[in-house]
């Protein structure tokens, strides 16, 4: 069971920003920006490269909810960044697909 599955099961506490039947959003414990929330599917998918066509609606829902969470946290006007890491070289630290919502400061380019 991954760290995120334990958060979904409430075995590990988290500061929840949003939840519905399909996704859970919570504040990152090591924020990389003034606002840093992770939006995860409740269905365990290791990473975006392992998602399949049956996950299309779930992935769309996840992205729409990420935008809604950003709006609820006041990030729409100034802007925000969505990030998904895939694999070790992509910066993945937990093998459970997740979308970082980052905002509250200017984001530089290129990242990393």
- CATH homologous superfamily title: HIT-like
Structural class: alpha+beta
Second CATH tier, the architecture: 2-Layer Sandwich
Helix content: 10-25%
Query: Major β-sheet, in short?
Result: 5 strands, antiparallel
The SSE string, one letter per element, is HEEEHEE
Q: Number of domains in the coordinates?
A: 1
Strand content range = 15-25%
| Oligomeric state | single chain
The top level CATH class name: Alpha Beta
Strand order of the largest sheet: 1-2-3-5-4
Shape: globular
Query: What's the pLDDT, averaged over the residues?
Result: 96
What is the third-level CATH name, the topology?
Answer: HIT family, subunit A
- Which value, in Å, is the CA radius of gyration? 13 Å
End-to-end Cα distance, whole Å, is 29 Å
Q: What is the overall number of helices?
A: 2
**How many strands in all?**
5
The low-confidence parts are: none
What report would you give on this structure?
The structure is a single chain. Helices cover 21% and strands 22% of the residues. It has 112 residues and is α+β, with helices and mostly antiparallel strands. The protein has one domain: HIT-like (HIT family, subunit A, 2-Layer Sandwich), CATH 3.30.428.10. The longest helix is centred in the middle third of the chain and has 17 residues. The protein is globular and about 35 Å long. The model has no long low-confidence stretch (mean pLDDT 96).
């Amino acid at each position: 069971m991954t760290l995120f599955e334990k958060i979904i099961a409430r075995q590990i506490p988290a500061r929840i920003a949003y939840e519905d039947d399909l996704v859970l959003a919570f504040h990152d414990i090591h924020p990389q920006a003034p606002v840093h929330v992770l939006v995860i599917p409740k269905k365990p998918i290791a990473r975006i490269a392992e998602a399949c066509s049956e996950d299309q609606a779930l992935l769309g829902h996840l992205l729409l909810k990420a935008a809604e969470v950003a709006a609820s946290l006041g990030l729409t006007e100034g802007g925000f960044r969505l990030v998904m890491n895939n694999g070790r070289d992509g910066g993945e630290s937990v093998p459970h697909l997740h979308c970082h919502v980052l905002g509250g400061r200017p984001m530089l380019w290129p990242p990393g």
